[in-house]
């Protein structure tokens, strides 16, 4: 019918919703910064074997606690070495793998559990809703750090155990947000229309509800990923998370703690990197919320 | 009001019961608590003896019922490690944690509420941006790292504060800041949003129109309304904070209930761990219950839901 390159058509039509989204995304500094930093760290994690100057596990008792370059060290070990003579930069680079992997998998597991519960509660209501709300209350009452520590201590610390424990504990926000979003969406006319034409419940949930709550889901996934990364670091710091010699940032802070008096950078560097990663993920999540739901901007 | 309280109380009790069951079943996660308790070098007979001594040979539900029955009466059994009644052990250590929790929430409120109000009075001003930056940075800061940095700066470099322990009030300054900043971002955001909302309402315009002073408008009219949801958020955050005190207490070697939890987890002292999980959960349940009742009392619309 109308040629979409026609200037008159363009003028009437204006930018499409997708173009508007792109415009808002590129105008949002926090989102750009967050995505940039997270993208960079993901790249570093993937390319760790290429980027790391040394083997992160190789000990050298002759080169223990070499200071970083900016504190009088050499370029042989740009960020110095730890108490076992392992290259700090290499351990930091491999540590990005641990943090990102745990964050992503834990958020995925809790996302599946929480979304299933939240959507079921929001769509079916009644008894299902009551049960889910009750379970959310129970989950919120349990002290996360304490339960996670206890379970890791009983089952033994390993990457798999930590990921599973966090995944099974952090579904509460998914359930709360997905329940509220589903409640809102399922009152819309198009859902009623789908019900009237006899669409099956799974079909309505998958093709009518899910696509319309997906934006909120992405936001919660990013925020919970940051949460899981912080918790893993705290568990490893307390000695009941990822076990040595795996290079985890929380573990590095804990190992550096004893030398903190003389070599504060052993604590400062891994903690700062952890802070930047979590900050970037949070900014990305906040940015995504602003961009996808502009009416909620304050 | 009374039906609401009773209904809410019933829910709280049901949640507490479920939590108690979960914290008790943690004991059985390892498969055989007797073997875990006896250690790796124990012989089969030793394990058997321990199993009978602690009654692990009975059905789990029977053991749970018995544990719950004595727990309700304040008896959580004897600690495997300290060889003391768990209840008195926790009661003694809880004083430090409670003190820390109260200081922490006061610190959070005293910093977050003024910042939130200031940010709401002038949106997008410098102070609003500073407040936003603090809340975003605060959420991303690993608390154990923040604590260690404070120790490096204020205890080691400047020598102003003691690095660890709980002997004097000065020992509590850094732990209070670390624990309190954790609750700050949420309280500040809610205060800011609430104030923005209230400041745009009709009764504020009326108050200004009749010539009330700006200070009176802000604090007597606006803040009193905006603060209502903040009070209940603070109660919930307090519950979270007590559970989160485990990290802070281990960084500053404060011998409170959180530190006790860490010690007993590392030493496989299951009765103490079970009791602590239950106690920390109970705090959260009680605080949220009080917050809901307070909300319903202040705002009758809440009573129906």
UniProtKB/TrEMBL annotation, chain A:
<feature type="transmembrane region" description="Helical">
    <location>
        <begin position="98"/>
        <end position="124"/>
    </location>
</feature>
<keyword id="KW-1003">Cell membrane</keyword>
<feature type="transmembrane region" description="Helical">
    <location>
        <begin position="30"/>
        <end position="52"/>
    </location>
</feature>
<dbReference type="InterPro" id="IPR000515">
    <property type="entry name" value="MetI-like"/>
</dbReference>
<keyword id="KW-0472">Membrane</keyword>
<dbReference type="InterPro" id="IPR035906">
    <property type="entry name" value="MetI-like_sf"/>
</dbReference>
<dbReference type="InterPro" id="IPR025966">
    <property type="entry name" value="OppC_N"/>
</dbReference>
<protein>
    <submittedName>
        <fullName>ABC transporter permease</fullName>
    </submittedName>
</protein>
<feature type="transmembrane region" description="Helical">
    <location>
        <begin position="213"/>
        <end position="242"/>
    </location>
</feature>
<feature type="transmembrane region" description="Helical">
    <location>
        <begin position="144"/>
        <end position="171"/>
    </location>
</feature>
<feature type="domain" description="ABC transmembrane type-1">
    <location>
        <begin position="96"/>
        <end position="285"/>
    </location>
</feature>
<dbReference type="Pfam" id="PF00528">
    <property type="entry name" value="BPD_transp_1"/>
</dbReference>
<dbReference type="GO" id="GO:0005886">
    <property type="term" value="C:plasma membrane"/>
</dbReference>
<dbReference type="GO" id="GO:0055085">
    <property type="term" value="P:transmembrane transport"/>
</dbReference>
<dbReference type="Pfam" id="PF12911">
    <property type="entry name" value="OppC_N"/>
</dbReference>
<keyword id="KW-0812">Transmembrane</keyword>
<keyword id="KW-1133">Transmembrane helix</keyword>
<dbReference type="InterPro" id="IPR050366">
    <property type="entry name" value="BP-dependent_transpt_permease"/>
</dbReference>
<keyword id="KW-0813">Transport</keyword>
<keyword id="KW-0614">Plasmid</keyword>
<comment type="similarity">
    <text>Belongs to the binding-protein-dependent transport system permease family.</text>
</comment>
<feature type="transmembrane region" description="Helical">
    <location>
        <begin position="262"/>
        <end position="281"/>
    </location>
</feature>
TrEMBL record, chain B:
<keyword id="KW-0813">Transport</keyword>
<feature type="domain" description="ABC transmembrane type-1">
    <location>
        <begin position="94"/>
        <end position="291"/>
    </location>
</feature>
<feature type="transmembrane region" description="Helical">
    <location>
        <begin position="98"/>
        <end position="121"/>
    </location>
</feature>
<dbReference type="GO" id="GO:0071916">
    <property type="term" value="F:dipeptide transmembrane transporter activity"/>
</dbReference>
<protein>
    <submittedName>
        <fullName>ABC transporter permease</fullName>
    </submittedName>
</protein>
<dbReference type="Pfam" id="PF19300">
    <property type="entry name" value="BPD_transp_1_N"/>
</dbReference>
<keyword id="KW-0812">Transmembrane</keyword>
<keyword id="KW-1133">Transmembrane helix</keyword>
<dbReference type="Pfam" id="PF00528">
    <property type="entry name" value="BPD_transp_1"/>
</dbReference>
<dbReference type="InterPro" id="IPR000515">
    <property type="entry name" value="MetI-like"/>
</dbReference>
<feature type="transmembrane region" description="Helical">
    <location>
        <begin position="133"/>
        <end position="160"/>
    </location>
</feature>
<dbReference type="InterPro" id="IPR045621">
    <property type="entry name" value="BPD_transp_1_N"/>
</dbReference>
<keyword id="KW-1003">Cell membrane</keyword>
<dbReference type="GO" id="GO:0005886">
    <property type="term" value="C:plasma membrane"/>
</dbReference>
<feature type="transmembrane region" description="Helical">
    <location>
        <begin position="275"/>
        <end position="298"/>
    </location>
</feature>
<keyword id="KW-0472">Membrane</keyword>
<feature type="transmembrane region" description="Helical">
    <location>
        <begin position="226"/>
        <end position="255"/>
    </location>
</feature>
<feature type="transmembrane region" description="Helical">
    <location>
        <begin position="172"/>
        <end position="191"/>
    </location>
</feature>
<dbReference type="InterPro" id="IPR035906">
    <property type="entry name" value="MetI-like_sf"/>
</dbReference>
<comment type="similarity">
    <text>Belongs to the binding-protein-dependent transport system permease family.</text>
</comment>
<keyword id="KW-0614">Plasmid</keyword>
